[in-house]
Amino acid sequence: MISLIKNELTKIFKKKTIYITFLVVLAFIIFSNCMTKYVTNSYSSYYRYSEETIKSMESTLETLDPNKASDNTMYIGIKSELDTAKLTNKYPENSWQIQIIYNKISPLINEKNTYEYGVNKDETKAQEMQAQIDELQQKLDNDDWKYFANEDLETANQTLSNLKEQRNNTEDKQLIKDLEIQIKQAEISKEVAEYRINQEIKYGNDYLNQALEAYQSYSITVAELEQNLDSLTYNEKQQYNQSLKYVEENRYILENKVDINKSDDLRGILENFMNQYSLFIIVIVVMIAGTIVSEEFNKGTIKLLLIKPYSRKKILLAKFLTTLIIIVFTIITILVMQLIVGGIMFGFDSLSIPMVEYNFNTNAIQEINVFAYLGLQILTQLPIIILLGTLAFALSTIFNNSALAITISLLGFMSASIINQIAITFNVQILKYFVTMNWDLSQYLFGALPMMPNMTMLSSIVICIIYFLIMMIVAFIVFKKKNIKNI
Amino acid sequence: METVLKCENLSKKFGKRLILKDVSLELKKGDILGFIGPNGAGKTTTIKLILGLQGITSGTVYINGYDVQKNFTKAIEKVGAIVENPDMYMYLTGYENLKLVANLYKNVDKKRIDEVVKLVKLENRINDKVSKYSLGMRQRLGIAQAILHKPSLLILDEPTNGLDPEGIKEMRELLVELAQKEGMAILISSHNLAELDSFCNKICIIKNGQIIETSEISEMKNASHKNIHIFEVDNSEKAGKVIEEAVIISKTEFKVETEKENVPEIVNKLVKNAIKIYEIKEEQKSLEDAFLEKTGGNVID
What we know:
heterodimer, A: mainly alpha, 2 strands, elongated, B: alpha/beta, Rossmann fold, Alpha-Beta Plaits, 2 domains, 6-stranded mixed beta sheet, 11 helices, 14 strands, 33% helix
């Protein structure tokens, strides 16, 4: 048996195709790592405008006449955007001022332009607005971000006291309920503004600000959903869980001052390892599993193999075990290639930062070593690879047609997400038992809610095993009974 | 002598079509059996049934006493074969191909591989990729992989395909050596009778899925007793009048088809009529003539 497997491995590794494929994968890894390093900027939510865009807006503006009724609205819109753009370009890229310009000054500019060029012109109001804008710009120039933070806090306090007063003055139950939600939102805004001032978190593209804002928006979602926690639909429950997870993870970032969402380092790339490379792994595995039997038939070498003193059962089993070895080999090779390329490009320092996940079983944040996390991801997604490999293997054994085996398996992989989407969107209960809904066990990690209600890790494993056994049994029966026709 | 291969009433159906009907064969140690028949007669199918490559519809195959259907691994253990073409892994070298085979048997070491390579005269090219081999070299490599584990039964399906006359001669010598020295029983199929003529000791003729003749070669050649005798005389015309059965070939030659015992009488008659006899020769009947006599048709369809 071991000699059979050894021979199969020899046959695979003496072929040039496997090396060419891995070279292509290596080229892709280098390319995508370069892209991550030099092109994508993971934090830029607020950009400055480029010179070309400003020029093109200026030329558009020249063609418009604010005094014509048909052009008026458009003129004001573009003029305001242009003014905003010019203002942002006075400050460096990624500076906190840019966010403030977009969020707070841009509406004022729009208002000013409406008074200045709009149908109902009002010179004095326009000048008032301009003065207000100039005052705020002064704050920007003085790097006085705390002014805006205090303003946020003040607004939140004011809203809060208004809402509380409204609630005390009404008897309407529905209104009270609505007000309660709004009060909660205001309280969250207040908490965030206070935290910003205390911790000195500037606005802008800094990860702490991103975390703080994400914390605010997800906390609001959680608060809204918590109102009727008992009557949530499954979809809303998933949304609730997701939001809760983000709240806790962003809280972790703020408390520990660690950027766990950073994607342009080795740790960030490894976090998405399976998402990024599962297609490559599956293509390679399916390519080998889909040819390992049928190629011998097509080339006539199967006769050599079948007249050796081994039963057909053993010969096919050896070929299947070889496929499993290839799966492990492929995953490890791609992982090692990524580690080396990523290590050279980004260094290994980031690997000391743990992965952070919210665990729904313990209701607490959990820190996991990078490699343990990676192992968990690979292990839970292994059924996808094994089942697709088995599919290609079985088809190639049954039909002796490599092209068919490879194509169907890859199509199966690509259509899986569509099938799952249909199942979830239209709530097709029967698809709960379909293999694509069950083969990704990572959906159960950390006590998360699975794709559809009443699915459990155990039932998923059982379903995967059933699919696996059906494919294998058919393949073995067909192989055992097969007449070796003339070639 | 011990029986190596015994096929009893082998039949094979594909759907409703009967491909083989009641084929029986027997090979003893040291036998070289020529398995002859036109293309499509069922030679390769018979071989595939023997090797377990196709299911047997009815009948049994015993190799070294083991039933192929019931005890396949034991039965096939001491069998080497080439079926149809010498199919090898083209992207591997000749040596790597042999190594793959050697791995699957217990007692085949590096020394044995080298020995076999020398035996089939591939030592100069054994480290080349098989894709660079000629068909003849692939045939020889095919034989090498088939005899690597010293089988007691060697089955070769059309092994002379693609060989030049020199190669055919070498292969004959090799097979005779294997049969005599290592005591292998060899089953060798061909549609070309002339190739097997000189070295097979048994012949089996198959046509339309049925065995129509099995015999020892010597027996077959002598099966018909009437031989052709050619007489060289001074005047064949005159002789023709004396001998009734004579067929005149030329002015000085005529031939008579008759039993050996009748030759002295013919000589006697010629002498009595004062015809000078210069030479009498017996024309050797080839296996092919004998075969044509049996089948009454062309061997090569």
